## 1
Amino acid sequence: MAYVPGLEHDLFVSYAHADDVAWVRALEEGLRERVRQRLGLDVSIWQDTRSLRFGQSWPDEIAHALTRTAALVAVLTPSYSTSVWCKRERDQFLEQFPGGQGLNVGSIHRLLKIIKTPWDNNEHLRFFESLQHIDFYRKSDRAAIELWPGTDEFRLKVAEAAESIAALLRAMRRQREKVYVASPATDCFEHWEALQAELRTQGFDAQPEGPRDSAFADQLMREEMRGAMLSVHLLGAEFDAFAAHQINLAAELGIPLLFWAAKEARTQADERQQKLLAALAQGRGPDGAELPAGFQNLDGNPRSMIQEVLAALKPRPREEPPAATGSPRVYLLCDPTSARDAAFARTLRSGIIEQEKAIEVDLPEDDAASATAARQRHGELLRACDGLLLYREAAPAEWFLSQLPSLLYGERLLRRPPMRSKAVLVDDPTQLAGQPETITVIPRTPNFSVHDLEPFLAPLRANPRPHALA
């Protein structure tokens, strides 16, 4: 899969087959590794693994690859200058850009010249003379000496080329990443403008181009939403029917949803807005339909909201859920930012493992790179666990209430099989007044021990099986 969305390959390396293929392969592998280090994700480099270039006709596979690649890397040698195949590859790539339109991404060109061997009289400098190039040779008094793989000089030049390529691919990815920022009620309009401006500054395709209201047809808004990698909805204290309608439209299209509730929404929301916020917390849209899996609820100040949206858009390698071992797995959910709760949770984890032997226990991350990364890991642990134990003593009441939907509706929100056991461990059970009576509540008494968790642990021992995702 290519790093740049919508393409099949990130790089196509064009070279004369009369040249040293081993040198070209070393260049490709060096670029692959260095660009991956710069971007944090693998890149796709098209390779002629079936010796297509040695045929007599122009293979469709090569033509297709050239029209589905982000950048062409031309390895210039005297043989390249006379190669009919190299010219065909170059022409096929460039014909996508009539008049050169789209060939530049900002200040970066999508054709990069690697000078392996200079041409006579430095004529290679007159080949696409306006384009950047990187010399993979050094000059001596009598000749140009090529840089060979494995040398420090070669590695430095690979790093230089990788820097340019990574910048190009990053810019192209941003251009193709659409983010829909739904038009909010008037009390959030200033935050909407700030988020739109920051997304565009960062190079994202922020839609819509202007505020929308009920005068705009649903079909128009669906077209603006279609293909978005994220739909962001800003919610204040004021209920707005059109803002709610946009949530329904984005959910119908299956777009990942991110909701941000301003501080006023938590403390001053009108009755209808309170109902909307409650529904979203339970994974249901304004129309009562289930939201697409993976939605996120944010709070915090407007500046942190913008940073969290950017973090949610940042590409990251896919993290695997905990490996299935055949042992039941417990997710001991606490607030990792509360030192007292986190310390007790670590002690409790050790106690459960020591007593039960066959039960594994996971804790939330306390060193996640961002709140978005922490939420993603939280979702992975919810999907993988057989039992969920929610613990609170010193954590803020707001944190505790924000986690209850995971306990009450986690299976439905994540579309996963039912958990085998769920419980709440609290020092004061009265804080659960008004919650469904189906919740198993275990008081943390002054003489608390792991044996007090028997109502929670017993179902996990019965009929042992691999955890939820095994």
## 2
Amino acid sequence: MSTQNQVLSISKPSYRQGKNIARQVFHEVISAIDLRKAMVEKLRHEGETLIAGEAHVHLARPPHVIAIGKAAVRMAATLDEILGGRIASGIIVAPELPATRLEHFRYFQGGHPYPNEDSVAAARAALEIVSRLTPDDVVIFLISGGGSALFEQPILPEVTLKDLIEFNRVLVTCGLPIEQINVLRKHLSAVKGGRLAEAAHPARQLTIYVSDVPLELPSMVASGPTMPDGSTVEQCYRLAEENGLVPRFPQTIRKQFEGRTLRETPKPGDACFQHSQYLCLLSNRDAVEAAKQALERHGFHCEIDSGDWDADYRDVADRNIAALDSLARNHPEQPVALVVGGEVICKVTGPGMGGRNQAFVLYAAQKIEHQDRVVLSAGTDGRDGNSPSSGAVADGQTVSRARALGLDPEQYLAASDSYYFFRTLGDTLDTGYTGNNVRDVRFWLDFGSN
């Protein structure tokens, strides 16, 4: 049976249940991108060989493991299971730590979105382990999103933790896309931009990563601690100068830009990557495909809009609505859905609480007022910006409900306070930390004349 016939055989979804359907689909997406399931499917331990996708790693002795990022705890636990506990030593740094801990591992609760003392301690501990390795050793790096803040060690000793926090605050609030932010981070760090791999040379290295960046930019995951860096110090200088960032940096970092003394990172072809292999475990594409399949199961004709969505959230919303309009015109007899991935850009303009996903939905809610439409946007990591929610959902009645309660959408947008707007309405998405991160997923539902 064709997909279209399958959709037509399902009872037509109701707009009255639109927000509930959207919530259910998001939870189905989170279940579909389960880390343990992906690792068990893609990794096999046969004798003294670990097979990870196309990579084959001989394990004559137990490997060392460095797990970094929002998915670090679950990735390390699953690898330990696959290897039957045969791990020499390990580091796990994550935003939240488990009650039950693995043998052979040291745990650090790093900071996010800004580094903390454990972020620095974890990086030092990892450098201590990998710097002692020989060509006979194997180190497995488990990398996921959030690692840029969770795991950090500045190159220059005079750069303090306070300086690192301020530097990251400037970056995450300046409105640049994540790939440009990470270009700047890489060149100030002793563990980013391939420098962790450089420290681990001459050991054999396997990096298994969950991508929270554009798929074509794998070295941007956690600022690429184990991958060759294609960016340059000249790009750093240009990004900082063109965006007026240098005067906002703390003095110990500002002087490196003013004096043009940044050190270059290891590049493709460098000897330190000679024995490195890589496996992408999950990416945003997996989440987007899972959303499409879930929406089709719920009775929608669904399409993926695969444009470049790492742009201003208002521009993205406007383009999404135009695409949804076209999709609805082409399928007038059935409800339709549009799925979009990526991470929109949302500059912080006020002191409130929220994030790019909730700001996106707040702007979009005004565009679909009085229409039989629903919009949802959420982060697969379970956190949106500085709020405790992963995102929000809205429909054609959201704005009128808000105004009846005295809430002005534009005021909340200007104050970067989208979380309190949606919390008041009961329309936040509260999953808690998911232990995963493959960027954001957003979808639009159009119920037509239903």
## 3
Amino acid sequence: MNGGELRARLVALSRRGSLRTRLTLLVTVAVALAIAMCAGLSYYVLQTRLIGNFDQSILESVRGGDRGFLEHNCTPDGTRGPFADGSATLLFANGTTCSIGQSPIVPDYERDSAAFEPCEPVYRYGTTRDGKPVRVVTVNFKPGVAVMESRPVGYIQRTLRLAGVSLAGISVLGVLGAALAGLAISRSALRPVGELTRAVEHIAQTEDLDTRIPVHGDDEIARLSSSFNAMTAALAGSRERQKQLVADAGHELRTPLTTLRTNIDLLLRSEQTGRSLDPGAKERLLVNVKAQFAELSTLVADLLQLARGDTDHEPHVELGLHEVVTAAVERARLRGAEVVTDLSPWYVVGSATSLERAVLNLIDNAAKFSPPGAQVEVRLRDGRLTVRDHGPGLPEEELPHVFERFWRSPSARGLPGSGLGLAIVAQAVTEAGGSVSLENAPDGGAIATMTLPGTLIRNSESDKSA
């Protein structure tokens, strides 16, 4: 198996295995590469130092030897004597040799001939005539003559072989230790991920959004667990609001539907029995049916407005809030409301349709509770829109509930409305990044305040001026 195939198999394994397996494999491979590099570097340094010291000892021997004895006692086939190991050989310019010892060195004329003149020592591996491997150092003996001295390399080879085996064993143990450590680390590090996985699987199987994951520390896993808990809490709240909306909608729809059914049953019974209603009673009945249909249509439209998600709205664009308020005031006047305005320019980012509906709901709500002939005061300054009526106001204990869905003041039960108008206002303002509140005015009546972030001039105009 070549390196490419091994790499391909490792990649395939890392993709097929679990996250814990992949993490363990990556840690093991990384440590194995680091250990291999360290072992290779250690072997290289050891080899270099050993050979360097070995070469230095040979060089000191050849430079400190008795050159006269070598020159007068060497023979072409070697001799016995102080150099019984056959470690010294003279190389002449004509290619002949003269050695002392039983194992003359086989010359490498191309490299050794450089020492015929004074030069740096020549280091090389070589052999003797009987085939033994040796380390050879060649230096200049005198002009036209080089001297070669050698030492057997068996000791060096055994030392390096032992070092290689030891480093390989240490590397294998290191890789195994890294694998075990990686497995332990992955188990510990991925334990929160396992808890998260089990929680997600539990939610998928049971739809239990009350499941929470313990959060420990402040690392990435802890933030992931916190985000997951926040997500499930938001989903649980959304589902609860949907249930409440459905329950409230069913309750609110029941009244107009019951009234419609009663009136229609009365009309059908009069026709089926042949006892027709008098024209006045029949007209009142039909007017009541029409009014119930109008109330039902308004209620359904309000429900659809509230039922859409926070992101299910028109694209937000830059618009003039004062222009939106002006359009809402004109619509309110068409419905019979007496409205006075004091508006200054203010530009916001939002949905014109939603914001106009919100302002119109505030004006309609103020007009509904104002005495006949009273004016609704609408004022816009620096992103703060106020809608003031001169009605009776609200009890303080009821003010926190005015923006809740289907909530209606006990004093307003007899007035038309579904209890969704101010809830729609709160939703539209929140989508635009603002806030809304309702409070009693000091001298009577109520003041609704809508605050939206924005600027006095359009951003496009400020860019042009810049």
## 4
Amino acid sequence: MLVLKFGGTSVADADAIRRAAAIVGAQRGARVVVVSALAGVTDALLQIGEVACADEHAALRALDGLTARHHDVARAVRHAERRRLLSAGIDGLSRSARGAVAAIRAAGRARPTPASADRLVATGELWSSRLVAALLEDAGIASRWLDPPEIVHTDARYQAATPDLVPTARAVDKLVRPLLASDRVVVIGGFIGSAPDGSTTTLGRGGSDYSAALLGACLSADEIQIWTDVDGILTADPRVIAHARLVERLSYAEAHDLAIFGAKVLHPATIQPAAARNIPVRVLNSRRPDATGTIIGPHTDLDVDPRLTAVACRSGVTLVEVISRDTRGREFFAAKVFHVLAQGGTPVVLADLCGNRLSVAVDDSADFDGFCSGVAAFADVRLRRGLAAVCAVGRGWSAEPRLIRDALAVLGDTPVHMVARPSGSSPLALVVDEAHAESTLTRLHDGFLFEANASRPGDFPLAVNQ
């Protein structure tokens, strides 16, 4: 049993969807297909929501352009009646989106509420999944489209909803399994869920990966396949390091850490459902379906590999230094700070506790005014903005005691604001100025992966930056 997820670039137009259909048709057995919105559509819908706050007519014109794009793809369906029904479905979804735009404008707010934004942006995956289901049928692959909010149940945290696994598993048993038993390929839009009151939620950007992993876990899939526009997970972002190379095998922990620290191939939450059921996750290129790709699994033998595996960077980070006014009970102090962060919904990227000082790296989007108010009674706060967090992943590599020394030697005169050795597969994490992020990535990547004398930390030539 396979779950195949196709990203936006893999369903960008009719030709891309035909390639996806060929991939699905080449597989045998039960299959669930999860799709993202067509490339660029999610960003366009979010922008339409912003525009709608001030200019409803401009927002509707942009929405009409997106509707026309989906109709262009629908014209590739050869079967006349199927094409007619598909076009009617596209128009129906467009009318619902127009209603969402009108509601955003009527609310009179400077920005859409998270709930109204979710209602609008979900249109992308609803459009794309209907297109994929129709083109699969057109290719002779028996398929059935399912409405994602009927399957994935979540809490009411709009734009970053958390799935509720019990009702989701129940819906999978009721709606998905019978179709698979009748030899139908099930097609579902990713990213979308429903709150307890039935309103539309989304799982956050990149959430279609998460949808695929949830469905794979509920179905005890043999494999979850993530089809994208690259050959797999690379040792670094190829837009930054052109000579980055393919990583053929990653552990669950390594893949999770790379995603947390900014690797774009996977949503960070994808790994947990797969790891809980020990389901392999394979990342593949829809334009090169015969390529090896990257396989993510337990891979305990990777612990003995002494080399760096990959590097990743998370930009848009602020370093928050919290200084307790009471030097006693530092653990209690740290617990209070993390409680305030959790109350504000602020995820922590990195943290380091030294004496009465807690340094926490968080995203720039955090509510810093609210945080400062929350800790004002017991601590002082300093903020350092315009930073990036860089991580180096490699579980066997982490055992080297001279790792930090050698890494700092590689970076030379690059200012480093924080150094941490988190638990898990990331033996090294650094916070640097955003302006130095790319050079930091390159120096770590090339120094510990490609230098002939640097296959292990401790062997690195200290003159490498000259």
